[in-house]
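Ticket 4471: requesting a sanity check on a complex prediction with flavin-adenine dinucleotide. Repro inputs:
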Amino acid sequence: MRRMEKIEEVVIVGAGVSGLGTALGLHRKGIRSLVLESSDSLRAAGFAILTWPNAWKALDVLGVGDFLRETHVLLQRLVINSATTGEVIAERTFSRGEQRLNLEVRSLKRNLLLEALSKDLPPETIRFSSKVVYIEEVGKLKLLHLADGSTLKTKVLIGCDGVNSVVAKWLGLRPLLFSGRSASRGILNAPQSSISRRRLIEYFFGEAFRAGISHCDEDTIYWFFTWYPSNQAEKEAEENPQKIRELILSKLKSSKMPKDVIEIIENSDLSNGLVSAPLRFRWPFDLLWGNICKDNACVAGDAFHPMTPDLGQEVALLLKMLLCLLDAWVKHLQEMETRQRKKSLRKLRRD
Ligand SMILES: Cc1cc2nc3c(=O)[nH]c(=O)nc-3n(C[C@H](O)[C@H](O)[C@H](O)COP(=O)(O)OP(=O)(O)OC[C@H]3O[C@@H](n4cnc5c(N)ncnc54)[C@H](O)[C@@H]3O)c2cc1C
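Returned structure tokens:
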């Protein structure tokens, strides 16, 4: 007798913020999904994410806001500085002590965000070491080919597989554009540091670079550095954690950066994987004119609309967009189910 191949209802490719957010949103609406992740565990690359009030609204809808509030400090101020003159350019107050002034801003540790989004998912929702390499259409289903040679059929396919998305490629979306800039990020565990008690986000605008620090919790400081690699040696340094740190420090030390901020980068642990990555984005007209969905397949998150990190709004927008998409998907899935039920009834009557 021929064994029937199991057909999945919903497959999500990628277990990043958007993949897990989608799976959790569907789960809260009573829809089971399977998440295929190419890595062998959740990837916390990127260290931390600044979250503004719009992100908190989305996190609350997904039911993970309070879990994350417990482990991350409320940031009190944003300070924007010129690294050329050393002057403060602008300041904004978000909160006083634990009192929010209508602006909830925190810097989330990426591993804790992924943990929050995955902890309520039913067991076996995420299948690790499952890299999708090729997609085929088989009637109305999508046949997914995995790197280990196995295949899997699904009724609905959602590509949350980041900037190198195979689903976006399959949909025919054009390749991403390089912004000309690269970014490096890191984290420092500094329980006793005076800087970690200041609870602020501080930006520094310098000559062809932008740097920033913020606090995740009492002990941890997140930093980032975006810059224009200007020659071959700088491009090559991107691959090497030691060289990239030297390059960042030389740029910071030749400008008017506070000494304690430079020390944060100087003391960051290289074994955490300090790297630099080119910043890419999708040309907005490609979203308007390209296929962001086809029948029962679509993309979300960075696979859909990757942005440069200038506004610190990527995850907020990604989550808000997910919630809108979720409503549309749930409606679509319910319509599909009703159509299927009617078809089975008609068949029963005929038989
Ligand atoms: C320097 C920098 C700073 C940033 N700072 C901020 C910030 O402060 N605030 C903010 O909101 N955002 C920030 N962002 C952006 C934010 O990190 C991204 O928008 C967000 O992580 C995208 O999530 P995602 O789930 O769509 O994609 P990803 O996080 O890239 O997740 C994709 C997942 O899919 C998996 N995958 C990929 N291909 C396959 C495949 N073929 N098969 C199976 N699995 C696959 C990957 O392993 C990965 O786990 C920053 C980005 C950069 C570069």
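Notes from triage: Residues 314-350 form the longest helix (37 residues). Leaving this open until the requester confirms.
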